[in-house]
Design goal:
The protein is mostly helical. The chain has one domain. Helices cover 79% and strands 0% of the residues. α1 runs antiparallel to α2 and α3 crosses α4. The longest helix has 30 residues. The protein is elongated, with a radius of gyration of 17 Å. The model has no long low-confidence stretch (mean pLDDT 83).
């Protein structure tokens, strides 16, 4: 299991007692948003680096198109990975561990908002 699986199941298990039917959807939206914001953040860092190096490898429009295609790919990948049989297998692996990793829910949501905020700040600076 990777870190995104662990974060998904932390969100899923936090919302499972209160939102039984929507817990999977909330966790799915969270993990997809986190991955897309980290993808945007890394893309902006690469763009700023290449801009400083005076390298014109990709236009802004092509970069946004690539980001949108990668985001759609992430949505479908996460939907397939966390909606069916594979989620049940991963959940069984998580429950079979001696001590499952648990993160504070406020830390998880602040991680998402911090990555989005940092992306917006870098985007404005470019």
């Amino acid at each position: 299991m990777n870190i995104f699986d662990t974060l998904f199941f932390n969100i899923f298990q936090h919302y499972k007692p209160t939102h039984k039917k929507k817990a999977n959807t909330i966790a799915l939206y969270y993990i997809t948003s986190l991955q897309c914001s980290l993808l945007l953040l890394s893309g902006l860092f690469v763009s700023a680096f290449l801009n400083e190096m005076n390298s014109g490898t990709m236009t802004s429009g092509n970069a946004w198109a690539l980001f949108i295609m990668a985001s759609i790919f992430l949505m479908f990948k996460n939907w397939i990975q966390y909606s069916g049989k594979k989620r049940k297998v991963l959940n069984a692996k998580l429950n079979s561990k001696q001590k499952p990793e648990s993160y504070n829910i406020w830390l998880l949501w602040s991680l998402l908002f911090a990555s989005i905020l940092l992306s917006i700040i870098i985007l404005i600076a470019l």
